[in-house]
Specification:
The chain has 21 helices and 5 strands. The protein is mostly helical.
């Protein structure tokens, strides 16, 4: 609501793609979001495209399953791969939102499959064209999410080179078309950023590509916000987080890891080694270079899912997947493996059902669950900003950047970007001058989202000037309270203030 849908909405309203100084996330690659923008144009309205955008993302998950099936051996191995992968709770959790992960995973799966074909010397997969195609798909995955440039494009390429049997010259001949494909797929986003800001990878590498659009303080805040705190940054801390996010949280499901390990041990050929090396690189980069949210490790689903099906491909001599000598596993092995697949799927489904029930209970306290059949209109009509302000209002949001369902003219700033009003206040301007600053820009209302401000201040950081005491001074200087949401313990969640005339 502040990025994946809101940014395409701003492009749609403006009639063009432009730099958004108030939303640094708009500088990320937008391989999936650009389709959300297309949907907005196809239906002629940003809000009417919200549910189609969610469905589009969900359908990318369907394509992911088709790709996983396409590069699995027909029969029981294919069934095991699809069931094990398709029931991973993360896929459903993000799949019902207008996010980007399923698009990233789809492109990653196709890139991996093409390399597996090339590795297996399939007659139709030989030559530089296959490597170029794999690079293009890996680059498209990187166009969905910055982290995929390292985890998918670089990690998959390194895994392929690791298991390739070739001379040094042949390795370079294979690496070049793959790298060209990656660059060709991701360069439109790099060119856009370079034109808008001078930094092709904003908000990263600002010391290499300095820009007036991103200060040293912002770069430091970004680094702090995307690194683990010192008490968790050590090896023990990272191992603890990894154990929790991958195993204890149930978002991946334990069957995925058990079957993947078994699949590798059953095959042990170059295909299995490529998948294992790629999975290890994904986990290593995730643990070493990110603040380790479980969602960032989702690319593990592709190599682990393909390995899981390998447990039903009996290959005791380590023969190639494309060798006809590969045999069916003994029946005594097949039955327990399929039992693990079924039990894992049922446990994942039970976990997701519990999550759904919790969401329904929360939703019924606010909006009847049945109302989500027409969710867009419900959320637009019931949004507090839309109900508390007149249609011609110009609303300045402080803290909450989720502007997608607001139909008034608004200004918001995501936490890592800089709010010009708050920058003005930080220079030592008096409350009267701060209110006058709003008046000169025809701002009619200010919304302080105190709960969100407190959350951001405790995580990513927030402007020091924004405190309840400052808001009280602003009220005395010309802001008039319109509404205030207060919890039972007296804690103020948010308040809406009107800018009075001089």
């Amino acid at each position: 609501l502040e990025y994946h849908l809101q940014v395409p909405r701003e492009y749609f309203d403006a009639g063009r793609i432009t730099f958004l100084s108030h939303n640094v996330y708009a500088s990320f690659p937008q391989q999936v979001e650009i389709h959300y923008l297309l949907l907005m144009h196809l239906v002629g309205d940003a809000h009417a495209a919200a549910i189609p955008a969610q469905l589009f993302h969900g359908l990318m998950g369907v394509l992911l399953m088709l790709a996983m099936a396409a590069w699995s051996r027909p029969g029981w191995p294919r069934i095991a791969t699809v069931v094990t992968t398709g029931t991973v709770p993360w896929l459903a959790y993000v799949g019902c939102l207008a996010y980007v992960e399923l698009g990233m995973l789809f492109f990653a799966a196709v890139a991996c499959g093409v390399l597996l074909d090339h590795l297996g010397n399939a007659r139709y997969a030989l030559g530089w064209r296959a490597l170029l195609a794999a690079g293009l798909c890996a680059g498209l995955a990187g166009g969905c999410k910055y982290t995929a440039l390292v985890i998918v494009a670089l990690g998959l390429g390194l895994a392929y080179l690791f298991v390739s049997v070739a001379t040094e010259r042949q390795l370079w001949q294979r690496l070049l078309p793959y790298a060209i494909g990656v660059f060709a797929a991701v360069c439109p986003w790099l060119i856009r950023n370079a034109v808008f800001t001078g930094n092709p990878v904003l908000p990263f590498a600002c010391n290499v590509f300095p820009t007036t659009q991103w200060t040293a303080d912002q770069a430091a805040q970004w680094d702090r916000g995307h690194h683990l705190p010192p008490e968790s940054a050590g090896l023990v801390g990272r191992l603890g987080i990894g154990w929790h996010e991958l195993f204890e949280s149930h978002m991946f499901g334990s069957a995925l890891f058990v079957l993947a390990l078994g699949g590798f041990l059953a095959r042990r050929d170059r295909r299995a080694w490529l998948l294992l090396v790629w999975a290890v690189l994904i986990g290593g980069v995730w643990a070493a270079m990110t603040h380790m949210p479980g969602r960032f490790a989702m690319p593990l689903v592709v190599p682990l899912g393909l390995l899981a099906g390998g447990l039903l491909e009996w290959n005791p001599r380590g023969q190639s997947l494309f060798d006809t000598a590969t045999t069916e596993p003994p029946r005594l092995l097949r039955v327990p493996v399929l039992l693990v697949v079924v039990i894992g799927a049922l446990l994942n489904g039970s976990f997701l059902w519990g999550m759904l029930q919790r969401e329904q209970r929360v939703g019924k306290d606010q909006v009847p669950f049945e109302a989500y059949v027409d969710a867009t209109q419900t959320l637009v009509q019931g949004h507090p900003v839309n109900t508390l302000t007149p249609p011609d209002a110009y609303v300045w949001l402080v803290g909450d950047a989720r502007g997608f369902y607001i139909t008034r003219k608004i200004h918001y700033t995501v936490v890592f970007s800089r709010d010009p009003w708050l920058l003005f206040a930080a220079t030592g301007a008096t409350p009267v001058e701060c209110v006058d600053w709003l008046r000169t820009r025809n701002v009619t209302h200010v919304v302080f989202s105190w709960a969100e401000i407190e959350r951001l201040r405790g995580t990513y950081g927030f402007a020091d000037v924004v405190m309840p005491e400052w808001a009280a001074e602003l009220k005395a200087a010309g802001l008039e309270q319109v509404d205030q949401i207060v919890l039972g313990d007296g804690k103020i969640v948010s308040e809406t203030l009107a800018v009075t005339p001089r």
